[in-house]
Design goal:
The strands form seven sheets. The chain has a 22-stranded antiparallel barrel. Strands 8-9-14-15-12-13 form a six-stranded mixed beta sheet. The protein contains six helices and 43 strands. By secondary structure, the chain is mainly beta.
């Protein structure tokens, strides 16, 4: 019934489009052609516009660089071709009525320099994607920063943990987001349970050329996830260059260049991160030794005008060693303050090593036809080992006569121990073919993909907690004169399992884009996606439709409607339940998206602004319920839930300060689920509509860029976020489904302000003596960053401590306090 309803909506949209009156311009002419880079490869998403008319008109290039634009005849037109990664190009032209002019032009790559304050968040005007600036990803302040930090500033994207680069989109979790680099899907380690372990994300901001993001309603060409897609293309160098950066938290180096004949190019990046400076200020003190290293390389060879070969490789080694010493956490209100004291024994050593490689061949059969074949390999080797014992006391917190905090009455004492010996080795290899064809009526794309998966998983962990005998099992009564036998304390959260799975996935898609020769006033994207997985023997299909309308109004306004069916077949982690058991019968989680959006372009103070509003509703079924603890997600491994996510995203961006873009984003969202379970008597029960773990009701993001001084040598960056707290409570609520109805506790609201202040020490306009070694450098920037400027301690989760009187106290696990970072950035 749901699929029939979706097909009905699709047919109605097509009927409306075909029935709509299409205006004919007798005195118009037609311009069409291709925009390519210096190697002859088509450039997608290039803005093509006529800028000297009273009412500007424009379009953007397709994936192969093709564009078509209806323009007035008999007048001189000024065409502007622009793209954030290339130098803009202008051309004047005058056409006769009904004349059809073909153009073929090449754009040169833009030099990425920090002095350019990037225009960020520009949505392509004929689709649902936001095109982000790679320059902004290098300047946005934050402990994570980078590309993910930029994405988190968009409406509907949430992250309540500054130590992690993971984000949730419109009620989904981290596992529901797609990330592509040069057309290859990227995976992250499986066993990571905290932001402290996470290290570097795959995406290297120094190498990025284009960033495209969609938070819902994306095309069928993208894979089988339910929430979002982030599509990244690495740069194609045009000359030798590079950059180097050093800070209190690590460093990075990147080099790029090309051969004399421009046929061979290389792009490399090396990053090293050490978050010890940040971690040592957490409540839990000790010896932190994190070390995260990442090396990437992209080699490209243009064999001839039609054939190109690319090799993308990555090695990442993340090592996290921690020897805890003590912890002091104060919580509660001023009139009811508590203190939690812990002394530790033991240590934790985690290693996450990943290897990635992709070899791609692209064949440009003609100006209208392109084919590509990509083979990729991903291997992750993960080890998680810890034995940590804590002896704690929970007490009242009081103040002495001098106002100093002192320990009051003791509420409870005890100790706990955490043990883990977890190991995972995963291999994912794939072969992916994609083709595209530009016809007279549509731009058509199709693809087929085969994927092999081999996962070896060893799980051995437990937790023991005792509050002064509260959790000790009682020994059996012995006869008089005979000593009772000793009984070991009971273990909780015991998870033991060994699994080895080998499986095969098959995917296919087809989609077409139509503009019906309407000067892109009406654009229709229609597609369908299929998948099959041998492990659960499930076949899924997902039709998707996007309709974009640009009314012929005096003020430029765009409307978009997207409907689609999204199926997310389980990956290995979704099949492993709360206790480590594997359920191979878990099916795909599914959702039906409906998104209605509009963009309004206008001017204030004679500066450009844009207001975007999106309303969405997602019906979710065959859900696999889960719980989130820090960044660790544990699934019930059962399709026993249904739910919904509904909300509104608002965004205003423009030149609040002349010459630079800033923006503010607002999001309102509610997502709930109803879970079916069986009680102890075997009776079927319903949880009722309870909040999902990612139910963030409201969030506000503000990003400000500004120049200080007339010479613009000083720059200010401010990144602020306020978000309501996420649902929280006993992490074992899914192990005892009767507790689901009690999911009413929420974490405190998340509040944070990060600030960066940059000063230009040397710019390209400053000429130095040829003997001066600094003369070979383009830019030298020194940046002071203040993380969590107003010292707002946020909570990521709770640790629940029971006492002998039956009371349980929620001990907050807090995030980072105020932190200062200094970094030096040099480009050459």
């Amino acid at each position: 019934m749901k699929n029939r309803f979706l097909v009905f909506l699709s047919r109605m949209a097509v009927a409306f489009l075909l029935a709509a009156p299409l205006t004919s311009y007798a005195q118009n002419a037609q311009i069409e052609g291709f925009v390519t880079d210096e190697n002859g490869k088509g450039i997608p998403l290039v803005s093509v516009g006529v800028v000297n008319l009273e009412k500007p008109i424009g379009t953007s290039t397709a994936e192969n660089g093709f564009f078509s634009l209806s323009v007035p005849a008999g007048v001189e037109l000024e065409l502007l071709f622009s793209h954030t990664a290339y130098q803009a190009y202008k051309q004047k032209i005058k056409l006769q009525p009904n004349q059809k002019k073909k153009l073929q032009l090449s754009l040169q790559a833009a030099t990425v320099q920090m002095e350019e304050l990037a225009v960020q968040g520009e949505r392509q005007r004929n689709n649902t994607y936001v095109h982000l600036s790679p320059i902004a990803s290098q300047t946005i302040p934050g402990i994570t920063g980078g590309v993910e930090g930029l994405v988190m500033s968009l409406p509907g994207v949430n992250n309540n943990n500054e130590l992690s680069s993971q984000y949730s989109v419109r009620g989904g979790n981290f596992d529901e987001n797609l990330v592509y680099v040069n057309g290859v899907e990227i995976y992250r380690p499986f066993l990571t349970r905290s932001g402290e372990q996470e290290g570097l994300s795959f995406v290297n901001p120094d190498l990025v050329q284009t960033l495209t993001f969609s938070g819902g309603g994306f095309d069928a060409r993208y894979g089988d996830k339910m929430s979002s897609v982030l599509d990244i293309r690495y740069r194609q160098p045009q000359q030798f260059g590079g950059s180097v950066g050093l800070s209190f938290m690590g460093g990075h180096l990147h080099l790029e260049g090309t051969s004399k004949d421009k046929k061979f190019t290389f792009l490399t990046g090396l990053r090293q991160k050490n978050s010890q400076l940040v971690l040592k200020k957490l409540d839990k003190t000790g010896q932190y030794k994190p070390s995260f290293t990442d090396f990437q390389i992209l080699l490209a060879y243009q064999a001839d005008s039609k054939n190109k070969i690319e090799l993308l490789g990555n090695i990442a080694h993340n090592r996290y060693k921690f020897t805890p010493k003590s912890q002091q956490t104060k919580f509660g209100t001023s009139g009811n303050a508590k203190s939690f004291w812990v002394d530790f024994n033991g240590f934790e050593i985690d290693r996450f090593t990943t290897y990635f490689g992709a070899l791609a061949w692209t064949h440009q059969a003609s100006a209208n036809s392109r084919h590509s074949l990509t083979a990729s390999f991903f291997n992750t080797v993960e080890r998680e080992n810890f034995d940590i014992e804590g002896f704690y006391r929970l007490s009242e917190s009081m103040s002495d006569n001098n106002g100093h905090a002192v320990e009051g009455d003791v509420l409870g004492t005890g100790h706990y121990m955490d043990h883990a010996r977890n190991y995972l080795n995963g291999i994912i290899s794939s072969l992916d073919y994609q083709g595209r064809q530009q016809t007279s009526v549509a731009h058509v794309q199709w693809g087929f993909k085969y994927q092999y998966e081999d996962i070896i998983d060893h799980l051995d962990e437990w937790h023991m907690e005792d509050s002064a005998g509260y959790n000790l099992p009682q020994p059996p009564q012995s006869p008089p004169g005979i000593e009772s036998p000793l009984v070991a304390p009971a273990l909780q959260n015991v998870y033991k399992a060994d699994h080895h799975t080998v499986s095969h996935r098959f995917n296919a898609f087809a989609q077409a884009k139509f503009d019906f020769n309407t000067q892109e006033r009406y654009v229709l994207d229609a597609g369908i996606r299929f998948s099959y997985w041998t492990l659960n023997n499930e076949f899924t299909w997902s039709p998707r439709l996007n309709l974009n309308i640009k009314p012929d109004w005096k003020r430029e306004v765009h409307f978009r409607l997207a409907v689609g069916h999204y199926a997310q077949p389980p990956f290995y982690k979704e099949m492993r339940d709360l206790y480590g058991h594997l359920n191979k019968k878990v099916k795909a989680q599914k959702s039906i998206h409906a998104v209605f959006a509009s963009d309004l372009y206008f001017k204030i103070w004679d500066r450009p602004f844009k207001f975007t509003a999106e309303a969405y509703y997602k019906y979710l079924y065959d859900l696999n319920p889960y719980e989130i603890d820090n960044v660790r997600i544990r699934y019930m491994a059962n399709n026993n839930g249904k739910g919904y996510a509904a909300g509104v995203d608002l965004r205003l961006d423009g030149e609040f300060v002349q010459g630079v873009n800033s923006w503010v984003s607002l999001s309102f969202m509610n997502t709930r689920e109803n879970i079916t379970y069986y009680d102890a008597d075997g009776s079927k029960c319903q949880s009722g509509w309870v909040p999902r773990p990612t139910n963030q009701l409201f969030s506000l993001n503000l990003y400000v860029q500004d120049y200080l001084g007339k010479k613009k040598n000083f720059k200010l960056y401010l990144n602020a976020v306020y978000a309501t707290g996420l649902p929280s409570g006993d992490s074992k609520r899914l192990e005892d489904p009767s507790l689901l109805k009690g999911r009413k506790t929420r974490l405190p609201d998340y509040k944070r302000v990060d600030v960066g202040l940059s000063v230009l020490l040397k710019g390209q306009d400053r000429k130095l003596s040829p003997k001066n070694p600094l003369g070979y450098l383009k830019d030298i920037w020194l940046t002071l960053e203040l993380f969590n400027m107003f010292q707002m301690r946020n909570t990521i989760s709770y640790m629940w401590i029971p006492t002998v009187d039956g009371t349980s106290y929620a001990i907050p696990n807090t995030l980072t306090p105020l932190q200062v970072n200094l970094k030096l950035e040099i480009t050459f």
